[in-house]
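From: lab user (bench 3)
To: helpdesk
Subject: output format question, protein + guanosine-5'-monophosphate

Hello, I'm new to running complex predictions and I'm not sure whether the block I got back is the full result or only part of it. Here's what I submitted:
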Amino acid sequence: MAEGCIFCRILRGEVKGEVLYNDGQAFVIRDIRPRAPVHLLIIPVQHFTYLTYLNQATEPMVGHLFTVAEEMAKREGLGANGYRLVMNQGKDSGQEVAHLHLHLLGGKHLGTMG
Ligand code: 5GP
Ligand code: ZN
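Helpdesk reply: Thanks, we reran it on our side. This is the complete output you should expect:
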């Protein structure tokens, strides 16, 4: 938990943000500024900042985000058409929130990466 972190605050129920899923390891919310019809954020419960700090102990936590993403994609009806996962890291990616998270985007043709 980090005091000022927006995702930690949402998890604590301090700010509005519907938690769609929480298994104690990862939780899921809808992005407040959706860039696709479905835009979810899959977030580790543990406040963890950047992949730079990943080690053997924390590696499974990142893998779990992908398992949850696949489950959420099914729940959101994206199974047949697919989806995109994005993880921003640092300044050049435009990363806004320094608490690791996976964007799950889908529900339309997303175009090519650019
Ligand atoms: P980043 O740019 O760090 O990869 O993504 C952070 C995402 O968090 C952005 O897409 C932004 O719209 C979303 N976000 C920022 N503040 C809030 C908030 O208070 N609630 C929700 N649900 N999403 C937020
Ligand atoms: Zn946090």
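A quick orientation on your result: Residues 6, 15, 17, 29-33, 41, 88, 94-97 surround guanosine-5'-monophosphate (ligand 1) (CB under 6 Å). Let us know if anything else is unclear.
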